[in-house]
């Protein structure tokens, strides 16, 4: 048989050459607890403050705000809850449509559904893996109608309220262009920054462009609280409202329980916030390790036919949360063979998510032409990306 230019074993060997050679199976992403985690969590247990009261929640919120450069951060139980509240604060109402990428984790679309609104799927661009602002602009020119109250979908008659870009695997979307599109069509911008803590667009941290933005601290994210998330905003009033609505909307009082709206019990427990404080202290070190790992991957794949390592867009500094190997278009049919052989070799790799419009729950939602997202779905392979893999070694 004639040997083709595409050599799966060579690619598997290349991945292996970057990873520690201790024969163990290498997971896709695991947390690293190398700092004050034990100390801070123990303090919660020693003092009894494990739940809804305690100093670590306030501390964690301050540190997150400081790090990301927003005026206010509100810690919540998970990233999905953060997104849900972000959309509500952005004014998303039942019956609205919200533009979300087809290439995303299901939480982005689910949060829209929780609001009684309908996700409307948009295409990605190859440069960022996130929403393509030029294509979106062209699409809205044809599809949207601007009325005095706002932007409407000509076909469905529903109001299009907001756009939720997602910074895919930590790589920022082209925010300036997207902000422009939002302005032109009167749409609210809500960033799903769940994957992009530590990622910057033109020198400013992601999560600063939207009216409100969401972070996640799930176990597989760059920093974890076990489970957790945060709402970010530069609007003090919205920040206060976010805190209020995620803590059952209780009116502060010495003993009385009065709630002035239907709130949510979305607050992050103190014990999780303690873990988060310890993790945040190590974020700069995590980022350095991840960048080193990405550089190693980039180097080994540079000479290999049929694949390329995805690197940050020129306007961004990415956290390289989950590393991406892109198959050349003509070899996309080999994706599952490569996944199979890599996983058989103990290297956890996986494809991108099934695109939202292909899930039966979202199959009837409005969507634009999605050829780039579909193409990327066939070509993306996520590589092991734990921070410890980027440690220095000889
Ligand atoms: C992780 C993630 C979320 C939120 O996830 P939680 O597990 O609820 O914290 C939302 N959107 C994207 C794109 C994510 O990757």
Mean pLDDT: 96
| Regions with little confidence, pLDDT below 50 for 5+ residues | none
| Beta-strand fraction estimate | 15-25%
- H/E series: HHHEHEHEHEEEHEEEEEHHHEEEHEHE
Number of E-type strands:
16
Shape: globular
Structural description of this entry:
This protein has helices at 8-18, 37-47, 55-68, 79-89, 106-114, 133-143, 175-185, 236-246, 270-281, 283-301, 335-344, 371-379; strands spanning 72-76, 97-101, 118-122, 144-146, 151-153, 159-163, 188-192, 200-201, 204-205, 212-216, 229-233, 307-309, 316-317, 323-327, 350-351, 380-383. The chain is of the alpha+beta class. Strands 1, 2, 3, 4, 5, 6, 7, 10 and 11 form a nine-stranded mixed sheet that branches. Helix 1 packs across helix 11, helix 2 runs antiparallel to helix 9 (270-281) and helix 3 packs parallel to helix 9. The protein is globular. Pyridoxal-5'-phosphate (PLP) binds next to helix 4 and helix 5.
Give a concise summary:
With 394 residues, the chain is an alpha+beta fold.
List the main descriptive attributes of the protein structure presented here:
binds pyridoxal-5'-phosphate; 4-stranded antiparallel sheet; 394 residues
Outline the secondary-structure elements.
Blueprint: H1 8-18, H2 37-47, H3 55-68, E1 72-76, H4 79-89, E2 97-101, H5 106-114, E3 118-122, H6 133-143, E4 144-146, E5 151-153, E6 159-163, H7 175-185, E7 188-192, E8 200-201, E9 204-205, E10 212-216, E11 229-233, H8 236-246, H9 270-281, H10 283-301, E12 307-309, E13 316-317, E14 323-327, H11 335-344, E15 350-351, H12 371-379, E16 380-383
Parallel strand pairs: 2-3, 2-6, 6-7, 7-10
Antiparallel strand pairs: 1-11, 4-5, 5-6, 8-9, 8-13, 10-11, 12-14, 14-16, 15-16
Helix pairs in contact: 1-10, 1-11, 2-9, 3-9, 4-5, 6-7
Pyridoxal-5'-phosphate binds at residues 78-80, 83, 104-105, 107-108, 166, 192, 194-195, 216, 218, 229.
């Amino acid at each position: 048989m004639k040997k083709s230019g595409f050599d799966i074993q060579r690619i598997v060997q290349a991945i292996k050459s970057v990873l520690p050679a201790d024969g163990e199976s290498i997971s896709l992403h695991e947390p690293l607890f190398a700092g004050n985690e034990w100390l801070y969590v123990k303090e919660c247990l020693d003092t009894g403050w494990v739940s809804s009261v305690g100093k670590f929640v306030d501390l964690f919120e301050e540190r997150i705000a400081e790090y990301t450069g927003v005026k206010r951060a509100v810690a919540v139980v998970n990233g999905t809850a953060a997104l849900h509240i972000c959309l509500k604060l952005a004014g998303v109402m039942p019956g609205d449509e919200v533009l979300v990428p087809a290439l995303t984790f299901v939480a982005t679309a689910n949060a829209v559904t929780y609001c009684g609104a309908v996700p409307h799927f948009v295409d990605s661009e190859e440069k960022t893996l996130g929403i393509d602002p030029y294509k979106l602009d062209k699409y809205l020119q044809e599809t949207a109608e601007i009325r005095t109250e706002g932007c409407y979908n000509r076909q469905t008659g529903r109001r299009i309220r907001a756009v939720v870009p997602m910074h895919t695997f930590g790589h920022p979307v082209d925010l300036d262009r997207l902000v422009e599109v939002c302005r032109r069509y009167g749409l609210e911008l809500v960033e799903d920054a769940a994957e992009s803590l530590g990622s910057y667009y033109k020198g400013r941290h992601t999560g600063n462009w939207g009216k409100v933005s969401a972070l996640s601290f799930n176990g597989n994210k760059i920093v974890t609280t076990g489970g957790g998330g945060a709402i970010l905003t530069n609007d003090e009033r919205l920040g206060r409202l976010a805190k209020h609505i995620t803590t059952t909307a209780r009116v502060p009082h010495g003993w009385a329980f009065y709630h002035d709206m239907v709130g949510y019990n979305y607050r992050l427990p103190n014990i999780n916030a303690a873990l988060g404080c310890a993790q945040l202290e190590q974020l700069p070190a995590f980022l350095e390790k991840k960048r080193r790992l990405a550089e190693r991957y980039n180097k080994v794949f540079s000479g290999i036919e049929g694949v390329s390592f995805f690197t940050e867009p020129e306007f961004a500094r990415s956290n390289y949360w989950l590393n991406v190997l892109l198959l050349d278009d003509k070899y996309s049919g080999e994706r599952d063979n490569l996944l199979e052989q890599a996983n058989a070799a103990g290297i956890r790799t996986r494809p991108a998510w099934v695109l939202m419009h292909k899930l039966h729950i979202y199959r009837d939602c409005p969507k634009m032409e999605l050829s780039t997202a579909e193409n990327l779905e066939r070509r993306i392979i996520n590589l092991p990306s734990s921070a410890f893999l980027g440690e220095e070694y000889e």
